[in-house]
Design goal:
Number of helices: 4
Radius of gyration: 31 Å
Largest sheet: 15 strands, antiparallel
CATH architecture of one domain: Sandwich
Strand content: 35-45%
Structural class: mainly beta
Number of strands: 42
CATH superfamily of one domain: Immunoglobulins
Distance between the termini: 30 Å
CATH class of one domain: Mainly Beta
């Protein structure tokens, strides 16, 4: 396999200019005969960047790998009047068709403006829509998040049921199968588990976006790892003119009207400040340009919480319904649990419940904390034209974020989590024109994201008498105490959050993802064929420090007394679990190759033919700290195997076989029936990607490297009493019920057929 991969890299110059466009056309004379050898000059108006080429024997020209912007095309030929097109906009992934019909005359005559770029997509079968700069900046966007505009096109809808934020659904596919590109570089968030994170690592300042395109189906072979849609964002570059902006957007509850249903006459607190600036211009006229952007966001929002806490009578052990003695199954006198028989640990924890401040036995406590979300980010991009044949640009995007999320109950009943976010992307590209019909592009990028979660208070396990849990100072706060019908006590997840923000309740947790991406591509115009050959390599490393069940969750559900709160008072645990903390580094390589031929058979008919091959290597743990419980037939059936056992089981380090059958053909056509009508059709296979499966369900979370155990009671006996704590051998395989993960040894990559 390794030799074969090396052969492919030698044979294919590798990945596409996915964030660029192409200008094509046919030059003919008045009789309709094609005119070869016509000089074609394509100028990007903002930078005076020039691309020069000639029509071939079929009168056809094609200029791939052009940056989005405003262009004009000029054609000249001895014996004909020179002609120039109207200025037009070239957008991301456009194939703009600009045809000319030459008139006989002197070349010294004044240039006439005749040709215009077609407003119809007449050369591609891909379905999608472009959102341009004016729409991005002018349309109202809550939080200035551009991805909200992705649902303006056909076949898209907001993602309602997804574990990640800032996503959408394309043609019914899972939102986690969308692909996000920023200047042609993968911008997909890659950490183990979502934790309500954004689908994209870098959230660019909308004032720095040139435009973006959302493709939803039958896109070309240059796009992969997308069983859903593709979002292709192009960032602005500087021009020969110095331009800048300074902005602040303010929303404040003091400027709002009182809500109609706010009976006390107050206004819920809401403050949102988003401010920043952009600046772009020339460093060397016509050659070197810069563009920078910065944005900071500060949001403070009232986050009203409503919970259920014990009533005054319940706090004394008095209930209105029958409560049984767990030992005799007989009703306790007066349905009362005397405080003298309460579990001593439960009594300490029970005291954390605040008193009710609303009437009734349910939803009887209200609390109005604040949610605070802040972020800062910047982008710097530099473009340089070395000469007519070489162009380079580089970009650095980085951000910092901090979220303080509310809890359902105030401290000390709950402990609030703090989340720190660190996204970064750095990339560079070089485009070399060997000949007017042969263009090469090389890109290298590093993408990094980190999500660090913790709580600010001290460790309280020992103070409240919790025994047997993992003893480490890094796990602060308390375990979770889940009592059916009541709000969870202890260090639980955040409550209702009016501002969508990253964060979960499994603190402490420190997750990061680092990707090196190598991209190389070649475009070749041959006759009426515009061919692209490409591939890419991703080196993915994901690190996780996770608490898992090292912070136990004690569950009380009324199995033993008939009342969940009474079970809690007596310390009768129905289910719980414990585990070690997890520190793992998993790695994967992606090798993707493709070839694409856009064949202009005639002036009205274009075929889009492509094939893509994707090789996602199975995940391995850097230090081989993983195991797999085998359920497939073979010599290792029903065995928990580690990497040292892999050989006798016919497996490699990953403990599963790789999926090397991901061949994805793409076929499409575009037929221009009339100047106002284009008929398009296509077929394709589109492979998916790893869906950020959480660490709890991955192979490194297996014995003997990570041991977790579940303890469950039956109808008569609890798992154990809260005052007794976990047994001394809680994490041994002979104690409790050991949890193991199983991955099928033939693990397939998901795909869709359109």
């Amino acid at each position: 396999m390794n030799r074969w991969i090396q052969f492919l890299f030698c044979a294919l110059p590798c990945f596409a200019q996915v964030d660029t466009g192409t200008i094509t056309g046919v030059v003919s004379d008045r009789s309709g005969a094609v005119v070869p050898g016509v000089k074609v000059q394509i100028v990007q108006i903002e930078t005076n960047s020039l691309t020069a080429l000639q029509t071939n024997d079929a009168g056809f020209y094609s200029a791939p790998s052009l940056r989005p912007g405003r262009y004009e095309v000029t054609v000249t030929k001895e014996g004909f009047h020179p002609q120039k097109s109207q200025p037009f906009d070239l957008r991301v992934q456009d194939r703009a068709e600009v045809n000319f019909q030459l008139e006989v005359g002197a070349t010294t005559s004044e240039v006439t403006v005749t040709a215009t770029a077609s407003l119809l997509e007449s050369e591609t079968s891909s379905l999608g829509h472009v959102v341009e700069e004016k729409n991005i900046t002018d349309l109202p966007l809550n939080g200035r998040n551009f991805i909200q505009l992705a649902t303006l096109g056909p076949g898209t809808s907001p993602a309602q049921r997804t574990a990640e934020r800032d996503s959408f659904v394309a043609n019914g596919a899972r939102g986690v199968q969308n692909s996000y590109l920023l200047d042609g570089i993968d911008n997909r968030n890659r950490i183990m588990g979502f934790d309500k994170s954004s689908a994209q690592i870098i959230q660019p300042v909308i004032d720095a976006i040139q435009e973006f395109k959302v493709q939803t189906s039958t896109f070309s072979a240059e796009f992969g790892q997308a069983a859903g849609g593709v979002v292709n964002v192009s960032m602005k570059s500087g021009t020969n003119q110095l331009h800048g902006t300074l902005f602040e957007f303010l929303r404040n509850s003091k400027l709002d009207a009182r809500p109609y249903f706010q009976q006390d006459g107050s206004k819920p607190l809401f403050i949102q400040n988003q401010f920043g600036a952009t600046l772009g211009g020339p460093m060397i006229k016509d050659r070197t340009f810069f563009f920078g952007s910065w944005q900071s966001s500060r949001e403070v929002n009232a986050a009203p919480q409503v919970g259920t806490v014990p009533t005054s009578a319940q706090r004394q052990g008095i209930f209105t319904t029958r409560v049984n003695d767990p030992a005799t199954k007989q009703a306790l006198p007066n349905n009362t649990v005397p405080t003298t028989i309460w579990d001593p640990v439960a009594a300490k924890v029970f005291a954390l419940y605040p008193l009710p401040n609303l009437p009734g036995a349910v939803r009887n406590f209200s609390y109005n904390p604040k949610e605070r979300v802040s972020s800062d980010n910047y982008n710097i991009k530099v473009d340089h034209h070395i000469g007519q044949k070489d162009y380079i640009f580089g970009r650095v995007s980085q951000g910092w974020g901090q979220n303080f999320l509310p809890t359902t109950l105030p401290e000390p009943a709950n402990q609030a989590p703090l989340i720190y976010l660190y996204p970064r992307q750095a990339m560079g590209t070089e485009t070399h024109t060997f000949t007017p019909n042969l263009v090469n592009e090389f890109r290298l990028a590093q993408i990094y994201t980190r999500n660090n979660q913790d709580i600010s208070g001290p460790r309280l396990f020992e103070q409240f008498g919790i025994k047997g849990a993992l003893d480490t100072p890094r796990i602060k706060g308390l375990p979770q105490f889940t009592v059916t019908g009541f709000t969870t006590l202890g260090t639980a997840g955040p409550g209702a959050t009016p501002i969508s923000a990253s964060g979960s309740g499994n603190a402490p947790a420190d997750k990061s993802g680092k990707i090196w991406q190598l991209v190389e591509s070649m475009s070749w115009v041959h006759g009426r064929h515009t061919l692209k050959f490409g591939g890419e390599i991703h080196r993915i490393t994901e690190f996780v420090y996770a608490t898992n069940s090292a912070r136990p969750n004690f569950t009380f559900n009324g199995t033993y007394t008939g009342n969940a709160l009474a079970d809690f008072m007596l310390g009768y645990i129905n289910t719980t679990g414990t585990s070690q903390q997890q520190v793992d580094t998993i790695q994967q390589r992606l090798f993707n190759f493709y070839t694409q031929d856009d064949w202009k058979i005639s002036r009205t008919l274009t075929l889009n033919l492509g094939i893509r091959y994707e090789i996602p290597t199975p995940w391995v743990e850097e230090f081989d700290r993983q195991s797999n419980f085998i359920t497939d037939s073979g010599p290792c059936l029903a065995q928990l195997i580690t990497v040292k056992d892999a050989g006798r089981c016919g497996l490699g380090r990953a403990l599963v076989h790789g999926d090397y059958n991901n061949v994805a053909p793409r076929v499409g056509l575009a037929w221009q029936h009339s100047p106002k009508t284009v008929v398009r059709g296509g077929f394709g296979v589109f492979s998916g990607r790893d869906e950020n499966i959480g660490v709890a369900r991955r192979l490194p979370n297996n014995p003997p490297f990570i041991t977790s155990a579940t303890f469950a009671g039956d109808q008569n006996n609890p798992a154990f009493l809260l005052k007794d704590g976990f047994p001394a051998n809680a994490l041994s395989l002979a104690s409790g019920s050991a949890d193991v993960n199983n991955w099928p040894i033939h693990n397939k990559l998901p795909y869709v057929v359109q």
